[in-house]
Input
Amino acid sequence: MHSCAITAQRTPHHAFLPRRRRTMAFELQAEPRQVFGKHVKALRRAGYVPAEVYGRTIKNQSIQVPAKTLKRVLAEAGNTNLISIKIGKKKPIQTLARNIQYSPVKQELLHVDFYAVVMTEKVTVSVPVHTVGESEAVKRGGALMHGLTELELEALPADIPEAIEVDISSLHDFSDAIHVADLNLPDNVNVLSSPDSLIVSVQPPRTLAAAMGAPAGVEEEAEAEAVAEEPAAE
Output
């Protein structure tokens, strides 16, 4: 898989230009799993994580993977990089991590679903949005406000970007904002998120906001009312 990040840099025409990064490959060695139900607790104590491999062109396969190796691969691959899983001595299966379950308290890895992809068929995936650069408006006291933290994309498995990097150095004024519609991604990547969705904007400093709109003290009174309306902690 040509995993990459797409760097979005604003031009005078408010377009965004993609930039590819390095290619990475991830591999997992797994074994067929014979333990199910309540007995998987013993499997986890032995240092393995139960998992499932499924897909349109294969039968569901229950597997077990060494926990230490699986945690490392998931931390690096996320849900946007292909993970090649070899079950026993069988031919490797190209997959994407789909459903990762953790325990609610200790956040221990409990179970993972891997979707077996077909390299010639497009898949839908959520890709993280990262901001890079520095905004002049933020330097002047503005607050950077984040909208979407992920974009819903459709692409062939080998074309899925690792991340979308948005350069905020184009945000010079407090009225500037970047929306999904501003992104100019490669032709082989389809954006499914709403074009009107906000990615990032700059909020004016409180003093400037008060001068432009609400009278002095209104904002503070509203905040005090909001605090007063909060229920007491149990």
